[in-house]
């Protein structure tokens, strides 16, 4: 009996939900399997080429390197765009901690590029209510974190004339709430248990939350922005762990007379220790934070970043590094914009001519610059600017 239980645990499938990401024992997240299980589509080269053509600019590094690797109906959004129909972007953040790590910045950096390249409006949901319920934070603390996180989001460079940031605690009501109720009426308890795995022990706040994250997918939730534009399409850039919310949303959309929201989905930013899940906010050595000093970054990369290099210089020269498991190479893939340089490093390191120390040194430079730039940008974000982004107001020049 005991033995049987143990082997069951060992064979356990990877888990990817909005609240938990874990690879199969000892392995990496299997993204092909995820695409199959979730039923989304792979984002292939022809789609990337199409984005480049339509926006008349090179595709973003996170697109070129396959970090955003899956989608739902993204090609429909591009078809419509080609016909002259615009869309709006929707993304969000659950404000559970004060300091963001690099993984948190990934969707926002990408969303900023999309907003600029397509010249479209953007709504950003801060789910302070979600984190209050899941993380056992007080209402006040969740709201404070939402405002602090808004500053980091604004520091990514969003255009205030095209961006509306809102906290659920402040904004939910009116037309947004009407949509929540319409959505909720279309989803049975069994359905939500099937999608999210809630149990009888979970409080009813959790069970009732999914419509809150679904509602921004419909333009009528924002009458001050999209009044009379119920047909406007929505594109959601997010990490693939958010897919369950939007599977549910897409399921109910036609019944409410809306387009299904389209999605463009990323893989997870791996922890320093290796690619077995996403970074954990509770383990400071697993991630680089935007608040880390240059010295912190250097120490963390040198001490903790999992290396695919060989155990001795002789062996390394002979066999080369295993790039598949090497975290510095993975991180450079996210943030080193220069394709030729990355290719050069991969070749030299893979052949053993370059050592782990040299690769880590380059990564430290790249990350230090990124973090310094973010810190400088965040320091210029004032409370007035946060108020401006969060004000319920029309957005001038939304589509131009
Ligand atoms: N639930 C998300 C989180 O915990 C926040 C979120 C809300 C979100 N709406 C979204 C993320 C839309 C991506 C897209 O981080």
Poorly predicted parts:
1-10
The number of distinct β-strands equals 9
Number of helices: 21
Helix-strand string = HEEHEHHEHEHEHHEHHHHHHEHEHHHHHH
Q: Whole-Å distance between the termini?
A: 66 Å
Rg on CA atoms, Å: 22 Å
Instruction: List ligands, each type once.
Output: tryptophan
Helical residue percent? 40-55%
Structural class: alpha/beta
Classify the beta-strand content into a percent band: 5-15%
Mean pLDDT across the residues is: 94
Widest sheet, order of strands: 3-4-9-8-5-6-7
The biggest beta sheet reads: 7 strands, mixed
Q: What best-fitting shape do the alpha-carbon axes yield?
A: globular
List keywords for this structure.
21 helices; alpha/beta; 400 residues; globular; two-stranded antiparallel sheet; single chain; binds tryptophan; ligase; seven-stranded mixed beta sheet
Task: Kindly describe this structure.
The chain is built from 21 helices and 9 strands. 51% of the residues lie in helices and 10% in strands. It is of the alpha/beta class. It has helices at 2-10, 31-38, 45-55, 61-64, 74-82, 102-118, 128-134, 139-154, 168-171, 174-185, 189-196, 204-208, 210-214, 223-226, 243-256, 294-304, 313-319, 327-335, 339-350, 356-379, 383-390; strands spanning 15-17, 20-22, 41-42, 68-72, 87-93, 122-126, 163-167, 233-239, 262-266. Helix 3 (45-55) runs parallel beside helix 5 and helix 16 (294-304) runs antiparallel to helix 20 (356-379). The protein has a 7-stranded mixed sheet, with helices on both faces. Strands 1-2 form a two-stranded antiparallel ribbon. Helix 15 (243-256) links the parallel strand 8 and strand 9 (262-266). Residues 18, 90-94, 125, 127, 130, 213, 236, 238, 242 line the site of tryptophan.
């Amino acid at each position: 009996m005991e033995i049987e239980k143990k082997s069951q645990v060992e064979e356990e499938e990877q888990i990817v939900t909005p609240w938990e990401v874990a690879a199969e024992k000892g392995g990496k997240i299997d993204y092909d399997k995820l695409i199959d299980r979730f039923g989304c589509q792979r984002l292939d080269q022809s789609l990337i080429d199409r984005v480049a053509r339509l926006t008349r600019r090179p595709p973003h590094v996170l697109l070129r390197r396959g970090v955003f690797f899956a989608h739902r109906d993204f090609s429909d959004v591009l078809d419509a765009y080609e016909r002259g129909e615009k869309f709006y972007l929707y993304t969000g953040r659950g404000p559970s901690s004060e300091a963001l790590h690099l993984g948190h910045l990934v969707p926002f950096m990408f969303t900023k590029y999309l907003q600029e390249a397509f010249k479209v409006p953007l709504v950003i949901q801060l789910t302070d209510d979600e984190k209050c319920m899941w993380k056992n934070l007080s209402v006040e603390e969740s709201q404070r974190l939402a405002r602090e996180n808004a500053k980091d989001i604004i520091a990514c460079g969003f255009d205030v004339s095209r961006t509306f940031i809102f906290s659920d605690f402040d904004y939910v009501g009116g037309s947004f709430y009407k949509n929540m109720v319409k959505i909720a009426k279309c989803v049975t308890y069994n359905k939500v248990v099937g999608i999210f795995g809630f149990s009888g022990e979970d409080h009813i706040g959790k069970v009732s939350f999914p419509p809150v994250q679904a509602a921004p997918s419909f333009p009528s939730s924002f009458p001050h922005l999209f009044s009379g534009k119920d047909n406007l399409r929505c594109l959601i850039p997010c990490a693939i762990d958010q897919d369950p919310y939007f599977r549910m949303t897409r399921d109910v959309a036609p019944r409410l007379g809306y387009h299904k929201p389209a999605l463009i989905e990323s893989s997870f930013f791996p922890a320093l220790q290796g690619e077995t899940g996403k970074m954990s906010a509770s383990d400071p050595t697993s991630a680089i934070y935007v608040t880390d000093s240059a010295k912190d970054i250097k120490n963390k990369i040198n001490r903790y970043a999992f290396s695919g290099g060989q155990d001795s210089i002789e062996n390394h020269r002979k066999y080369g590094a295993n790039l598949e498991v090497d975290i510095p190479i993975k991180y450079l893939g996210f943030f080193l914009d220069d394709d030729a340089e990355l290719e050069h490093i991969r070749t030299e390191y893979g052949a053993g001519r370059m050592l782990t120390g040299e690769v880590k040194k380059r990564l430290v430079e790249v990350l230090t610059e990124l973090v310094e730039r973010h810190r400088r940008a965040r320091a210029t974000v004032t409370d007035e600017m946060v108020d401006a982004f969060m004000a319920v107001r029309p957005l001038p020049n939304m589509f131009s």
